[in-house]
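Example record

One chain of 275 residues, shown exactly as stored in the release files.
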Amino acid sequence: MLIRTLVENTVVSANFASEHGLSLHIETPDLNILFDVGASDLFAQNAQRLGVDIGAVDLLVISHGHYDHGGGLKKFLELNTKAPIYIREGAFGKHYAVHPKGTTRYIGLEEDIKGHGQLKLVAATDCFSPAPGVEIFANVAQVEPLPRANKGLFREEGGRRVRDVFAHEQNLIIYRGDKTLLLVGCAHNGVVNILRHFYNMKGFLPHYVLGGFHLSSPMGSQESLPQLEKIADYLLQTKAKYYTGHCTGLTAYEHLKALMGDRLGYLATGSVLKI
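Predicted structure tokens for this chain:
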């Protein structure tokens, strides 16, 4: 498998541009999979620089209903007219970020594409397979504390704003050979909760985990050091290799890296990972 980072908050070199968002392209011997499309058209520009043909993508998974993961959907639909797009039903709800100083910003998806024929709205289901060797799951039990950075995130329900419970978040599993890869978008449900849910479903843990862990936010929230230590301790126990970025935040990443060593790597825009 080749995993190319099309969008992340940082870059590997000046040949690429970055934004607050995430988009990963996964190439297997028989499938081209796109996981999220960042906040804008940028994923397509960086894809071209990396030699990735967006028109050849076989399926797209949108991890949740925030603009920094689904903002490039219109561009994707311009470039690809065949790939099904798997997205949770609640992802097209109205989502907001409320800053501690009181300002509110809409962070949801563009609703005018909701009825597009390529969209496959995923109803309330735990785990299903959209293609051989690929599974999507949700309904993660929120047992361990959720990320502190979730605090300012809201959704609209019944005409009023309530705290988001992230029922619109889903995760991707890819099986190839004897390796299992788990992709998370922002892990709003908590990366430890997601991994425990994975184990409860499968009876084993993935070999690789990629994505954002939502340990910081643009609004200034940062995860506490004791909680970062607890997260690192659990991740080390899984024996998996982790690659993160985006909403994990550079400060949290450095703390985790100091604790996890070579078990943790970074996914900057333009990076290419071979598994």
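Notes: The chain has a mean pLDDT of 95.
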